[in-house]
Specification:
single chain; Four Helix Bundle (Hemerythrin (Met), subunit A)
Length: 188
């Protein structure tokens, strides 16, 4: 069985996994559109997302304070496998029910956070490493709805930067990035 969240994660995963696989070790120290993260930092964060959001799908609380380095032998394959497990964890209809343990948000909203991380951090990593990236259109559309709901709260909590104007000729992805505080022209 599938849920809306698992379908979105399954749509977001292939593009992000492919670009993560193509990142070379000599790119780890490059800056990213996330000002506090290098490529290495962002890869470790994204790996934590894939692991911790599996636990969140099961209604369990997570500890985000540990910051292990996941970029050890075989990390690309582990990332791909954990991304598949992430989508599978959210395929259980119970994953979208109720309020998240420790986060106090509806589970469906928490699931969209994982979609946002895979999609937007995929773009961040692509920009930082000079790779092309085209997220699944359905994820971009769903994340506009997510930003309608969570944008102001996310900004207050520091999860999103100040909105960046994108202009009338911006794509749907550009508009989404701008809403999340990213400059779509970063690195061009």
């Amino acid at each position: 069985m599938a849920t809306k969240t698992s379908e979105l994660l399954a749509a977001a995963a292939p593009g992000t996994v492919a670009l993560v696989r193509a990142i070379t070790d000599d790119q780890f120290d490059l800056p990213t559109p996330c000002p506090d993260y290098t490529v290495r930092d962002l890869l470790n964060h994204l790996y934590e997302v894939t692991v911790n959001f599996q636990r969140l799908a099961a209604g369990r609380a997570v500890d985000w304070s540990a910051k292990p380095d996941h970029l050890t032998e075989g990390w690309r394959d582990r990332f791909a496998a954990d991304t598949e497990r992430l989508a599978a964890a959210w395929a259980d209809p119970a994953s979208e029910q109720g309020v998240s343990a420790g986060m106090g948000l509806p589970q469906a909203t928490v699931g969209l956070m994982a979609v946002a991380d895979l999609t937007v951090h995929g773009w961040d990593l692509a920009r930082a490493t000079g790779q092309p990236y085209r997220p699944a259109p359905e994820t971009v559309g769903a994340l506009h709805g997510f930003m309608d709901e969570m944008g102001p709260t996310g900004r207050q909590m520091g999860a999103f930067g100040a909105e960046v104007p994108t202009g009338a000729d911006g794509t749907e992805l550009d508009r989404l990035l701008g809403r999340m505080g990213r400059d779509p022209d970063w690195g061009r």
